[in-house]
Predict the 3D structure of the following.
Amino acid sequence: MMKTKKNILLLLAVLGLMAFGDPHKRVGSAEGLGNYHQRVTDFSPFAPGEKLDFKLHYGFINAGVASLEVNEADQSVDGKEVLQFLGNGKSGGTFDWFFKVRDEYQSFVDAETTNPLVFKRRVNEGGYHISRDYTFLQEEKLIEDGRNKDKVAVPENIQDILSAFYYARTLDFDKIKVGQVIELYSYMDYEVWPLKVRFKGTEKVKVDAGEFDCLRFVPVVQEGRVFSDEEDLNVYITNDKNRIPVLVKADVLVGSIKMELTNWKGLAHPLSKV
């Protein structure tokens, strides 16, 4: 279980959707954003060819690198145009000596709705391996997860852990108010996880790659789990039509993590760089 938690921590830090609530908990509607399950922007915040690169520090250790890509899929699914989201993470430097990480996540989504159709997860962490393949039957609100003989019932517009990041980028933040909550559901490790983040306002953020105008979010978490309170994780997203993560800072029970954007290409819109 501890290795699984480390894996989730690494990936979700990249995605900026870290939220470790009770996976069995069923929560109500998001506060203040209405029907957040529908795409309400009049533009697409990403396009095939986008690639984002990040570096990760665990305390003073150079822990590794990660990347996120948007690609055109080479085939359709049930006649739907499909995009491939690809996430890779690997440890580096001193961290690689005692806890080697080689992770790959793939999500094939409906290009129109950004809802996942197929999800593939391949994890190798310190000799601990995970292989997951899910098929999403969105119209039926069911998932074939390869473990259960019966299909699993899930909420409407269920996401996988990678597609959730891109889906959240399609939401309309223009009228969001400080303190409001965005809530999504994700299917992870054979369970439904509520992912909830709270908007905290706008800030300028400086990293090695430059200074950016950003929106700041924190997770709505169950205290005493991975974080002691909401302010232990801060996620900074560009305040523009791209909505890409610039910086993630986390204080967790076993140390601190910082992940920052290093390179980008193929963005769909101009970047809010100061």
In short: The helical segments are 2-15, 93-98, 163-169. The first helix runs from residue 2 to 15.
